[in-house]
Specification:
Elements lengths: L3 H21 L5 H14 L18 H11 L5 H28 L1
Helix pairs in contact: 1-4, 2-3
């Protein structure tokens, strides 16, 4: 049976390994670049659209759009915002799943 300290060390090791993997493989797809332009237009007052003056919704995930827009108000570089938020969300999901699995298997 693992002691509490060994469990914490294993958890930190797993999170560290996943963090390194996420950082080394981080990239932004063309679909993400589309929403980044929409976010830039939105936070600069042109509305949530790809081309200024057109009224076409260019994103398919309103909650992610609003969340990134909110964070982008405080950090000027939208590419860095997207990578940081995506990596943090992935790590929080990993921690949540590890805690749930640990409770199931005791």
């Amino acid at each position: 049976m693992l002691t509490q300290n060994k469990k914490i060390i294993l958890l930190l090791l797993l999170i560290s390994l996943v963090s390194v993997e996420l950082l080394s493989t981080a990239w932004i797809s063309d679909d993400a670049a589309i929403i980044l332009r929409v976010i830039e237009n939105f936070i600069h007052g042109y509305g949530p659209n790809f081309n200024v003056g057109e009224r076409v919704q260019a994103y398919t995930h309103p909650l992610w759009f609003l969340f990134l827009s909110f964070v982008a108000l405080f950090i000027n570089n939208i590419f860095i915002v997207t990578l940081i938020v995506s990596i943090l969300m992935s790590l929080f999901t990993l921690i949540f799943l590890i805690i749930k699995i640990a409770r199931i298997f005791g």
